[in-house]
Amino acid sequence: MTALTAGSPECLGAHIDDAGVNFCLFSAHATRVVLCVYDEQDREQQWELPGRTGDRWHGHLAGAGAGLRYGFRVQGPFSPGEGHRFNPAKLVIDPCAYLLEGELGCHPALQDAGCRPDPVDSAPYVPKCRVVALDYDWRGDTPPAVPWGNTVIYEAHVRGLTRQHPAIPAALRGTYAGLAHPHMLAYLRALGITAVELLPVQQHAHEPRLQRLGLSNYWGYNVLAPCAVEPAYAAGLGGQSALDEFRDMVRALHGAGIEVLLDVVFNHSAELDKEGPVVSLRAIDNRSYYWLDESGEYQNWTGCGNTLRLCQPMVREWVMACLRFWVEECHVDGFRFDLGSVLGRTPAFSADAPLFAAIKADPLLGRCKLIAEPWDIGPDGYQSGRFPAPFAEWNDRFRDDMRRFWLHGDIRLGQFARRFAASDDLFRQRSPAASVNMLTAHDGFTLRDLVSFNHKHNEANGEDNRDGAGENFSFNHGHEGLDASEEVAAYRQNSQRSLLTTLLLSQGTPMLLAGDEHGHSQQGNNNAYCQDNATTWLDWAQADEALTAFTAGLIRLRQSIPALSIDRWWVEGATQEVEWLDEHGAPLCAEQWQQGETRLQIRLSLHTLFVINATTSPCEITLPEGGWRLAAPFQPYMSAPADELLSLGPRAACVLEQD
User: Fold this and answer.
1) Rounded Cα distance, 564 and 578, in Å
2) Is the peptide bond before 166 cis (omega within 30 degrees of 0)?
3) Which residues pair with 437 in a beta bridge?
4) Which residues pair with 576 in a beta bridge?
């Protein structure tokens, strides 16, 4: 390395060229930015970035290349009341870093919450950025481009999915390579999954509170470096980088016809509240990156201590650069945005927010699958149904209403039908696929726990069971916990099948939580964010293979029904798409739509019949004419209809096909 010249402001981050490395950092209020380079003994060498174009600080370091260890020190005003917290004693990581070396601890030198800047150098305790060469041989990789109407999403955690899988080599369990193992690919294909949605794979930090308790942030929503692949999920065999192992995984999943969607966190950062660590955005340009109140304090609309200010033009450009990295360099197929209402805050939520417009107009990002979690905890944070196209949304109303319908019987038929038909009250301005239907997700009970516990059991989280949702619409079927009588166990199995059938045969985009298809339990913990152990790791050795086969059969059945794959709104009276029939096979009358406990038949695409007994008593259903047989998934559990009569037990469902 011989000299630092002005370089280029074109791309944020550190980028290799033929002559060296170009560095570019955004800060609107800084007065000086210093590039700090570290050798393997952590000796620091400093260069002031000589170039400034608008609010971009930049410089080109001749002779530098891949592997260079670096960070920044940023000088400017320290006036917390005005929102400025610059302190060159605090080393900061590059917000666009592709690799961080080391983990973030909770040393006091990382804090800077006082009225005056803390003079203690934080560099020994801050992970160092490394310059990365991004070249990779994709070997003709082609995105599967699965139509929304055929999409079935499988929400999974890279580590928890394979950590206990006996058919995967021990060295690969819990890693990107483990997910890409032929056994796992074959399983996903046999199940019928078309897209895996992965909990955050960006490098994250463990909150100081969890570190003091000896716990960790297992879910990974405390993101430190949104462009860096989490190294803890890499097997690293043969010295392979985490980035390349991740890209191998994407290529393998694509080869199996499976898309890759990533959970991304652009609502808050790992700097948390003002008592949290100062490692990046706070000391780069606190006032630009975060929403602050009039006294300079953080607006905590996320519950995590801070909220990113995504309507600021350069902050928006940073987010766009991060998203493009995952699509261009890692070939991912889409994103699910955690606490997505923050994306539209200006500060009030707007469907016309600048970030939405930028994503939609981007030729690369605009064609991705985009899914929002349509809420945050700020003012008017619940925005279900208000996101603009091309966004789909997690549909929590489907989740709650279907749980209540099957487990409590307190949902009227009309409300059930609305949720079954893709919630047109929310998504009519988009297509039915905009409703991402779910019964469970990482946040909450698993399906087995939903039918086994009336109450959350989160004591292991260290918060005296105060954390996690209190209202789950669950039902333990008369006994709290997994250890129940055969009668209760059979009742629970029946409820699981009824719920899965509703999820996978409803209009919209179904999302299945990994492990629900084989009865995974978290022992009643409905907020297992800090449980990196057997609580959350799927127990493949104890998997309910019959339930797995049932789920796979439902997905195959779904893909054979045109009414569920056409991704257009059903037309009233168009019987070739849907017919709503009562227990006698006659069209429903107006009064019947207001019923609570109900018996119902839904005829889809003429040849498929979804039969429902949502009452607490067994019954006989009169089938419409045409000759009906049990669909394959139900044959082990029910008797075939006789003389156009079908016997159904309490709170039971089945599917018939026309002979």
Assistant:
1) 10
2) no
3) 395, 510
4) none
Q: How are beta strands 153-156 and 84-85 bridged, if at all? A: unpaired
Q: Tell me the residue ranges of DSSP E strands in 176-258.
A: 195-198, 202-204, 223-229
Percent of the chain with pLDDT over 90: 97
Q: Is the model's pLDDT at 574 over the cut of 70?
A: no
Catalytic positions are 338, 373
Distance CA 49, CA 47 (A): 6
Give the chain's length.
659
Decide if pLDDT at 1 tops 80: no
- Tell me the pLDDT tens digit for each residue of 164-173: 999 999 999 9
Q: For Cα atoms 53, 57, 60, give the angle at the middle one, nearest 5 degrees.
A: 105
Which residues are CB-contacts of 487 (< 8 A; sequence separation ≥ 6)?
none
Distance of CA 130 to the CA centre of its chain: 27
Cα torsion 639, 641, 642, 644 to 10°: value is: 170
Compute the distance between CA of residue 614 and CA of residue 409 in angstroms, rounded to an integer: 7
What is the C-alpha to C-alpha distance for residues 144 and 195, in angstroms, rounded to an integer?
Answer: 9
pLDDT in tens, 412-455: 999 999 999 999 999 999 999 999 999 999 999 999 999 999 99
- 466 to 457, 526, 535, 650: CA distances (angstroms): 10, 11, 18, 35
Q: In what order do the strands lie in the sheet with 32-38?
A: 44-48, 32-38, 69-75, 128-130, 100-101
How far apart CA 156 and CA 165 sit, in angstroms, is 14
Express each pLDDT in 93-150 by its tens digit. Answer: 999 999 999 999 999 999 999 999 999 999 999 999 999 999 999 999 999 999 999 9
> Angle, nearest 10°, between helix axes 354-361 and 313-328?
30
State how far the Cα of 127 lies from the Cα of 607, in Å rounded to an integer. 60
d(CA 640, CA 549): 19
Instruction: Give, in order, the Cα–Cα distances in Å from 305 to each of 290, 298, 302.
Output: 10, 7, 7
How many Å is the Cα radius of gyration of the chain?
A: 26
Question: CA 637 to CA 106: how far, in whole Å?
Answer: 54
How far is 546 from 104, CA to CA, in rounded Å? 44
| DSSP single-letter state for residue 390 | T
Integer angstrom CA distances of residue 16 from 23, 121, 231, 475, 518: 9, 29, 22, 57, 47
- Nearest alpha carbon to residue 246 among 330, 324, 188, 310: 330
| 8-state DSSP, 322 | H
User: How many of the other CB atoms lie within 10 Å of CB of 623?
Assistant: 21
Q: Whole-angstrom Cα distance, residue 180 to residue 559?
A: 24
Does the global pTM surpass 0.90?
yes
Closest C-alpha among 629, 603, 497, 607 to residue 554: 497
CA distances from 127 to 38, 224, 318, 529 (A): 11, 10, 20, 23
3-state secondary structure of 22: strand
- Band (pLDDT 50/70/90 cuts) for residue 366 is very high
Q: How far apart are CA 401 and CA 475, in angstroms?
A: 14
